[in-house]
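[Help] Beginner question about ligand-bound structures

Sorry if this is basic. My supervisor gave me a protein sequence and a SMILES string for coenzyme A and asked me to "get the holo structure". I don't really know what that means in practice or what format the answer should be in. Inputs are pasted below exactly as I got them.
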Amino acid sequence: MEQAVRADRPHALTTTLAAFEVTATSPSSHHARSWLRAVVGGEVVGVAELELPLTENTDVAWAEVHVLPGHRRQGVGRRLWEALVERARAAGRTRIGGEVSVDVDVAGAAHEFARATGAVERHREDHLLARLPVPGSPVHPAYEVVLWRGRCPEEHRASYLAMRNQMNADAPTGDLDLEPEVLDDARLSASEERLTRAYDVRVAAARRRSDGVFGGYSLLFVPHGTDYGWQDDTLVMPEHRGHRLGAALKAANYADLPAEVRHVHTWTAPDNTAMHRTNTALGFRVVEHMYEMDVAIA
Ligand SMILES: CC(C)(COP(=O)(O)OP(=O)(O)OC[C@H]1O[C@@H](n2cnc3c(N)ncnc32)[C@H](O)[C@@H]1OP(=O)(O)O)[C@@H](O)C(=O)NCCC(=O)NCCS
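Answer (accepted):
No worries, everyone starts somewhere. Holo just means with the ligand present. The predicted complex, written as structure tokens, is below.
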């Protein structure tokens, strides 16, 4: 996977071996994942992943296909795709979705391949990368930043869960028809437990000084043993917007990282003007275009 991806996506975020091992050996109860490999003359020349959501979006399967550069345009990708479709249908799925990323400078076949399967674009995001340190971004004086790593402390869990669910409901998915995932305390705990085995999980949250109400959070993952982090959610609750809390939370998380972490990845829809501006002000630049696509298989 790493070799196939790296060939035309120098800035791709790929899974680490440790993260893959957690996914493969201790399955989540909300997503079933399986892997296929294409073997030619005893050599693995391609791999594919199929993810079946088990709680929400049970009509969908998520797919990824990777073929080594020296073995492309020989039908290997198509064979892997057909095998994924067969398995997705057998699991009762009626559509397959995938994220297709294309470097802004290096030509790749991902988009052409996805279109050849009949998939259509439903949502677009930019993949941005920043080199640390980033310029500081002061916190509005009415708020204080609360940082934690790993499991969310008990006293903040109810507020954190409410914000996570607001994020899941609000996150833009364009024309992709998806139900939001709903987290409860047990599901959050299980996810924290699995994630901390492969990642340093860091949260920065903004708490209003006057009443202790949380106004937003930003979630960052640093894969163990790497020199980069990647941004997951950043949310500012509607009544707390307009104070540059998004930038302050991201910057607070980055400032707290160990010195060996040199880069941060993030993804933002190009029409999300507020977050795009926040990111560019922090020094992020667009390195890839990411298309979320899907195709009916029923
Ligand atoms: C995308 C990828 C999986 C294609 O693998 P592949 O084995 O070369 O694909 P196939 O030979 O089965 O091609 C199937 C169809 O895709 C399209 N396609 C594939 N590569 C193409 C290219 N370079 N230019 C134009 N169309 C292309 C064609 O329609 C092709 O059918 P054809 O050869 O009959 O014209 C491979 O390039 C890859 O691993 N890229 C990096 C990882 C990635 O981006 N994966 C896709 C995201 S999930």
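A couple of things worth pointing out: The first helix runs from residue 2 to 8. The mean pLDDT is 96. Feel free to follow up in the thread.
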